[in-house]
């Protein structure tokens, strides 16, 4: 197989809102500059700094006195609860500029990607994308990626910031990385399509879930708009030239119903939608079968068994895994990660990986892994919080119905 050139860079920033989000297309040394003149909290140890969304937000408040390098905020002035509910009811803008974007070029680019991931990349139509898993030889999940087959002779890949170094190391085995660019934003929410359509010449009604186009967005040319999301709502992710990320974010935030949203709302929204967070709910010790992600395996790939860890993963498909990812609901104190899950006889049967009070449902929700014998929906288990035991019900996910858009 001839090597495929890879382009990594920081010239583009991903932007998001619920409907859409923002993030860089793969910059390794990108910092987000700006300050917010409002109550805010920042995630400790965040690998990337807050940039264009923070800057756009503080400009709208008239605060130009700071230029500090900030981490991604947990929330902006509205607070977590209000931001979460606003996303479900209207539209929010998320900074996803910390997420690397990669372009994979070359005659063998599809074969190259399929040597790394479990998905059927060859079957993707032009402009179509898919969630797929990069696996290791033990069947573990190295990262979860979105791979899009663009009409510009390359594959467009969005991965997790925390996995950037190891993803690049794996790709370097067969590829030749060189600088490229972009920053991301994500917008999401019931009114996302109406808000964004005002700044598009293309008809958003023709763009289905997991499809993308390259277009002008509110006067900013060369933006890649992908209809996807991490909240369960209809959303888009926009990869925008980094030098115009603040400009685009400001234009979106000028719409009164569009609020900036931070990491806290992102986490509770994705948990309500039953979506995994890499490092919490999936990692290199978790297989697709255990995580309930077998749907990411293409039918042809299952037959060919030509992806890393195929023998182990396909054995679990036939024999069933010993543990499974499940959803849990409860009342009482919130269920947090690392909480022990106990069976009917009080013995440990699993562990919580994500959990929080659900703003939409008014009760506690969580996900975690339990022994397969206790994974059926409707099973009553127990969680141990602050040395006290509380009943928890195995519940089907998503907890809140998803609103992904499919064009008619």
Describe this structure in words.
By secondary structure, the chain is of the alpha+beta class. It has helices at 52-60, 80-89, 109-114, 164-172, 192-197, 245-253, 263-272, 288-291, 299-304, 310-319, and strands at 4-9, 12-16, 19-21, 41-42, 49-50, 70-71, 73-75, 91-95, 101-104, 128-135, 141-149, 155-158, 175-180, 183-188, 212-217, 220-226, 235-241, 258-261, 323-330, 340-342, 348-358, 363-371, 380-385, 388-395. The strands form 5 sheets. Strands 2, 3, 8, 14, 15, 16 and 17 form a 7-stranded mixed β-sheet that branches. It has a 6-stranded mixed β-sheet with strand order 10-11-12-9-1-13. The protein has a 6-stranded antiparallel β-barrel with strand order 19-22-21-20-23-24. The protein is globular and about 60 Å long. The model is unreliable at 1-11, 16-50 and 61-70 (pLDDT under 50). This is Aminomethyltransferase.
Name the features.
408 residues; Gyrase A, domain 2; Elongation Factor Tu (Ef-tu), domain 3; seven-stranded mixed β-sheet; 24 strands
């Amino acid at each position: 197989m001839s090597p495929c050139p890879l382009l990594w860079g920081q010239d583009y920033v991903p932007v998001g809102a619920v409907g859409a989000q923002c993030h860089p297309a793969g910059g390794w040394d990108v910092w987000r500059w700006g300050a917010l003149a409002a109550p805010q909290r920042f995630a400790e140890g965040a690998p990337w700094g807050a940039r264009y969304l923070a800057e756009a937000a503080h400009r709208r408040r008239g605060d130009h006195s700071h230029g500090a390098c900030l981490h991604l905020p947990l929330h902006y002035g509205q607070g977590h609860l209000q931001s979460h509910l606003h996303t479900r009811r209207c539209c929010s803008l998320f900074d996803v500029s910390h997420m690397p974007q990669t372009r994979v070029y070359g005659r063998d680019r599809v074969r190259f990607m399929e040597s790394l991931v479990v998905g059927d990349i060859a079957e993707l139509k032009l402009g179509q994308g898919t969630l797929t898993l990069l696996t290791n030889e033990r069947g573990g999940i190295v990262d979860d990626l979105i791979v899009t087959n663009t009409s510009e002779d390359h594959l467009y890949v969005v991965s997790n910031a925390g996995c950037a170094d190891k993803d690049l190391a794996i790709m370097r085995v067969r590829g030749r990385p060189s600088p490229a660019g972009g920053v991301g934003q994500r917008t999401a929410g019931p009114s996302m399509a109406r808000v964004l359509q005002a700044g598009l010449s293309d008809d958003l009604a023709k763009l289905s879930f997991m499809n993308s186009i390259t277009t002008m967005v509110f006067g900013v040319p060369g933006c890649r708009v992908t209809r996807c999301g991490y909240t369960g709502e209809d959303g888009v992710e926009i990869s925008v030239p980094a030098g115009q990320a603040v400009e685009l974010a400001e234009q979106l935030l000028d719409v009164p119903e569009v609020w900036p949203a931070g990491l806290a709302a992102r986490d509770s929204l994705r948990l309500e939608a039953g979506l995994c967070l890499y490092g919490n709910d999936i990692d290199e010790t978790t297989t697709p079968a255990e995580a309930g992600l077998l749907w990411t395996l293409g039918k042809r790939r299952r037959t060919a068994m030509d992806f890393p860890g195929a023998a182990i993963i396909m054995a679990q498909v036939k024999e069933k895994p010993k543990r499974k990812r499940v959803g849990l609901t409860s009342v009482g104190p919130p269920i947090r990660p690392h909480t022990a899950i106990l069976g009917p006889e009080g013995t440990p049967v699993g562990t919580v990986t994500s959990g929080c009070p659900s703003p939409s449902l008014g009760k506690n929700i969580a996900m975690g892994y339990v022994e397969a014998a206790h994974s059926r929906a409707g099973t009553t288990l127990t969680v141990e919080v602050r040395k006290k035991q509380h009943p928890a019900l195995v519940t089907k996910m998503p907890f809140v119905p998803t609103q992904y858009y499919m064009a008619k």
